[in-house]
Structures are given as C-alpha cells and as structure tokens.
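Handout, section 3.2

Students often ask what a structure token actually looks like in practice. Rather than define it abstractly, here is a full record for Glycosyltransferase 2-like domain-containing protein. The first block is the sequence as you would receive it.
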Amino acid sequence: MSASSRSSRTALAGLLLAAGITGRHAVGLLELRRSRRALIRPACPDPIDVPAPTVHLVVPVLREQQAVASLLDWCATLLEALPSLTLTVVTTAREDAERQLLAEQIAAAGPGALRAGRFPLTADECQALAAVRPTTTGEVAAVLDGFLSTRDVVVGLLAEPALAKLPIGHLHHPGVEGRKAAQVNHAAEQIPAGDETESYLAVFDVDSRPTVEQMTLILRELASHRQRAGSWPEIMQQSALFTAPAGSGALAHGAARMQSLWTLRRELASFRRYRAGLDRYPAGFRRTVVRGLAQTVGHGLLVRRDVFAQVGGLPTSTTLDDFPFGFQVTMAGVPVRSAPMLGRAPMPDTLTELVRQGRRWFNNYLDYPRCARDATAAGRGRPVERAVALAVGGYRGTGWLLRGPAALTLLGLAVSRTGWPTRLTAAAGLVVGFVEPARQLARLEDRPADPLSVAHDSVDLFCATVLNSVGPAWAVAARLAGARTALSPKAHRITGEAS
C-alpha cells in the first residue's frame, strides 16, 4: 500500500470519527432544546378539581448526623404548607455494625491517614480521632462510640415540640447489610397502606431540597392526570440540575454543569422516548425498540404504592438501586412521567470525590446483567425485551466510558494537520458539544451568557468531561478484579450550601 493511500485512509477515518462524535453531540443539543421548551411550557393550566394525593416522603439516612437537622427543618416547611405530605426518616442498624469495620480500617491505616475524604467520617469525628491518635481497633471504636448515631440524632430532634406536631415518622431498619433500597423497602412495608392506588412513596436523599413551589406543581400535575385519565400516574420522576458547593473551583462547577447537561440531553430525552414508545405503539417489537429503557434516578422518585409492590420495590441485589429499578419498571411496562420542574442536587467539590462518585454511579451500568437475571426470575418481560434493554444500557454505559476520550479526540482532530473537512467537523463538534450547551444552560440557570462567560464555562465543561471517564474506568477495573466495598458507597459529604 502506497504512502498516499494510507494517508487518504487515515484522513477518511479521522473524518468519519469526527462526524460520528459531532453527530452524537448534535443529537444531544436538539434534545437539550426540547427539554428547555418542555420546562418552559406552563404545566397544568386548567383548574384542578381533584384533591391532592397522599405523598409519603421517604428519606433513608446512613451516617448523616450532621445533615438530618437541616433536612427536618426544610421538610417542616413543606409539611406545614402541604397537608397531603408526610415524612418518614429511615435509619439503619448497618451504621452501628459498620462502626467496627470502620474502626478496623482506620487502625490499619494509622493516625496519619485520618481525613474525611478517605473515610466516611464527620469533621468532628476526624478532629476527635486526631486528638487521641488511637493505634488499635479498640481505641478507635471507643472514640467513635462517643458520638451519637444518626438514629440517636433523629430521635432527639423529633422530640422537639415544633417537629413532634408534624406528620414525621422515624423507622429503623434492622438489617446490617442492606443499603438505601432496603431502607426504602422497609418504609414501604411499615407505613400504613390505606388505598395504595391513591398514595405515593416519594424517595429523596438527605441533601434533597424540594421546594413548596416544586411539590405544589408536582401535586397539581398528578391531580391533573387523575382528572384527565381517571387514574393516578404510576411513576413520576423529578430530575435535577446539579450545583457545586459555594467556593468550589472551576472543575467542580464544570462537573456540575456537565451533570446538569446530562439531565437535559440524556435523562429527560430517555423519558420522552420511553413514554412515546408506550403511548404510540401496541405491544410488540417496535414498541420494545422505541421505548428503550427507563433510566430512573434515586432522588425525586414518586411511585404509586401499588406499583411499587408490583415491581418488587427497589432492587437490593445490585450496588445501587436507581437504574436497576428503571430496568424492572421497563420490563413491567409501567409508564414513567417527568415532573414539570427540575430539582437541585449537590455535586462533590474535589477531584478525588468526583472520581469516586463516577465509579459508584457507573456500577449501575455494570449491574444491568444482574437486573436482567432478576427480571427473568420474577417473570418480567420477554427475552427480546430484556435483550433490547441490555443493549440500550450497554450503549449508554459505553457512551459514558468513552466521553473523555471522545472530547480529547475532537480537540486533537480540530488542531491536527489533517484536511480541512476533518478539522472543520471536529471544530463544529466542540461547538455543539460544549460551547452551545454551556450557553443554553447559562440561560436556563439565569447566569451570564455573554461570550466571555460562555467561553469560561465551555473550558470548565470540557475539562470536567475529559476527567469524567476516570471513575467509570476504575469501576470496570474493580469489577474485573472482583473488588467490593463493605462500607456505604456514598463518596462525598455535603457540608456547605450549594452555589
């Protein structure tokens, strides 16, 4: 093969690669615009004659002593304004059981390794351990036992008169191995049932902050559907925009904007496709392909109680529960509606915590084969439905794993010495993948969208995207090595307000 022939083939390969990545970004930009239009459109404009349904807010907590007071104060405002809401905080015996394991790990690491980023410790616990500098497991355990557990903190707070009069309950899950899903399922079993077709479980995290306006709009959307269709919606998902803690650096803000854009470009788009597949096509292969895979997330998830029981609750056999729950929902053919208003969720503020979060979240994709086995065992879905769902999940996971390399590829092709069609296509990919999304997100969030601000946001977004594949790669390597973590998978602890 001549040198000119090899050069032509290399140029063609570069052009096709740039075109493929740019095309994916272009589709994402179109979905971003559709999401913005859907959010801007007024929801429930007509008067609603149907009373609001009962919604049980369920918040599972594990080693959240410093966060529950803020949660209860926030939710007290919700409960006072919206009488159809209740709140249940679910603590777990796992917290006490893991103190011994945590003490063993800290003692093995030595006093010099004490820092909140390495172990799931509060700042007060770190300071107390640093002051004593324990060297044995017993000494570490003695220091940790001097601090109240989350259960103790919740019990004390709920005894206060201002909270005691509100519909706030506390449940303690006796299991020592289950994670968030087991706590939520425990709440579903213990909360008085009533009419399960007219009440909801709403799963939120301890750092979730749904506003009165948001919950009012969600309740109106539920009631509007009830008025039109004669039944309450099965599932409603409130997606979220992400924020970095105040005072964070450019990387944290870039990561938050990248995750917000994922919500707008991918998550909301997946719900639109899923709903379109169920609404437009009868049961069969075409519906299976069009609907794809519902990708629910574990905060802002409202599930009608009879549907929650129908799909077996939140999955407990997987690392996390949010995407696996969406898999079971898809196999059961249950519709999912998007809430008309986005919530807010915090992002970590350090590189280490961002990578750990990416590793933890990517386990959702690695657990899809287990989800398929669970669905088969439960008799949910046909083989072709499970195969299509696995293919969709695999495509999405691959897209995340290659997100960073794809961004670097575009940049490299844009500044390379290849032909102008390749450079132009790659440059267009950078614009539609980073510059224009940064501008549209700034407008949606009411931030400055002038050229200088957009350029700054675009660079932050690009850098965060490049680093975003590190966590998934770590997750794949750990899974291949058979690594597991016995401690809570939560990687970061939010101690400040989001900016």
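Discussion prompt for tutorial groups: The two ends are 58 Å apart (CA to CA). How would you have guessed this from the sequence alone?
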